[in-house]
Amino acid sequence: MKHRLSLLAALLFVGQAWALNPLGDKTGFSGFVNLGVGGGQVESNFFAKIADTGVDLGNDTIYNLGSPESKDLVMPAVAMELGYTFSNKKTRIFLGNDFSDYLQFDRSTRFAIRHDFGRLGTLQLAYLRAAALATEVWSDPYLVGAKRDSTDMEVSGARLTWDRMFGTAFELKVSATERDIDNEQSGMSQPLTPEERQLLDRNGDAYRVELGYMMKLDGGHLLRPSLSYVDEDRDGRAMAQEGYAAEVTYIYRTKNNTRWVTTASYGKFDGDAVNPLFNKKNDADRYFLASTLFVPGLFGLDKWVTNIGVVWGSQDSDITFNETNMWLINAGLLRRF
Fold first, then answer.
1. What is the spatial distance between Cα 278 and Cα 290, in angstroms, rounded to a whole number?
2. Are 50 and 71 a contacting pair, CB within 8 Å?
3. Which of 42, 110, 119, 122 has CA 20 to 30 A from 72's CA?
4. If residue 150 lies in a helix (H) or strand (E), which one and from where to where?
């Protein structure tokens, strides 16, 4: 159980692609905390900052509707989980962080319950809600030559995970989330009709279905490929997208419990309607790569696991204004309890 928690924390930094971990033999309260910091760059015309931290994710003033400029950032890389495993050793409830979409800077809090049904598999139902340090966006991202106002963006929803389906190595994830932007004013600064402005509304729902398969290879190697269908059903049809993504996670663990976890994914998404400002649909390719190394007991810290990771993501859109690029390097210390 000790080293499974280390692996679980690693996956908080690589998109949570791993199957559900066995509950183990420990009952009662348990969890982990990972304390660290990350630094890098982000390019986006939509993200403003991380609330209440002073971490800026974009420039408050732009001078054209072209591709976004880069912004340096330093941010906390903190992850935690606190849960309770019942005496039957088959049921657990827990509260923790959820980093489900790096390109959207989606930092959510997850409250979940899971139960092991034996040969049927393990089911987990999670409620997701924007964390205290939620992402803020620009109220009207298309305002040119003047200071843009930021506004809160809240993402909430649910995710059902069915792992080890009927005793196999297959895992199914189904999620539905709702995005609510407090003061959505997209396009108000531009000479558009009310109907055209409605096409730019970023509020709405998103649905994702993912099927993965865990492959245990020789010599401490594991591989998990997966395929996903994604429907981003936004209220503004020019902001809506639909498409598919392929992902693979590779894990290598040594005899001294050092672990290296790497995830790579590619997705292709089609826009739903023509954007009235650019006369194009929001078709895009999404790329993601993350790698984290976990070394227990480094520097004589017997009860801590040192972790160092890199994250890179890119959304290459036919509309250059809508492109998003980011990279981060993070380092931290993890301890279980």
1. 32
2. no
3. 110
4. strand 150-163
Decide: helix, strand or coil at residue 38: strand
Helix (H) or strand (E) holding 8: helix 2-12
* Beta-carbon-side half-sphere exposure of residue 231 (alpha carbons within 13 Å): 8
Question: CB neighbours of 178 closer than 8 A, spacing ≥ 6?
Answer: 155, 156, 157, 204, 205, 206
DSSP 148: P
**Distance between first and last Cα of the chain:** 11
**Prediction pTM value:** 0.88
**How many structural domains does the chain have?**
1
Contact 143, 151 (CB under 8 A): no
- pLDDT < 70 regions, the chain: 1-19, 99-107, 131-133
What tens digit of pLDDT does each residue of 287-326 get?
999 999 999 988 888 889 999 999 999 999 999 999 999 9
For residue 4, the surrounding DSSP H or E stretch is: helix 2-12
Tell me the pairing of strands 106-116 and 79-85.
unpaired
- What is the extent of the structural domain holding 133? 2-336
CA distance 155 to 175: 12
Rounded to 5°, angle at Cα 287 from 314 and 171: 135
Sign of the Cα torsion 125, 129, 132, 133 reads positive
CA dihedral 254, 81, 214, 119 (to 10 degrees): 120
pLDDT per residue as tens digits for the range 111-154: 999 999 999 999 999 998 876 567 899 999 999 999 999 999 98
- CA–CA separation, 333 and 77 (whole Å): 10
Single out the residue of 26, 79, 1, 8 nearest to residue 294, CA to CA: 8
297: left (phi over 0), alpha (psi -120 to 50) or beta: left
Q: What gap in Å lies between CA 269 and CA 212, rounded to an integer?
A: 20
Provide the CATH number for the domain around residue 65.
2.40.160
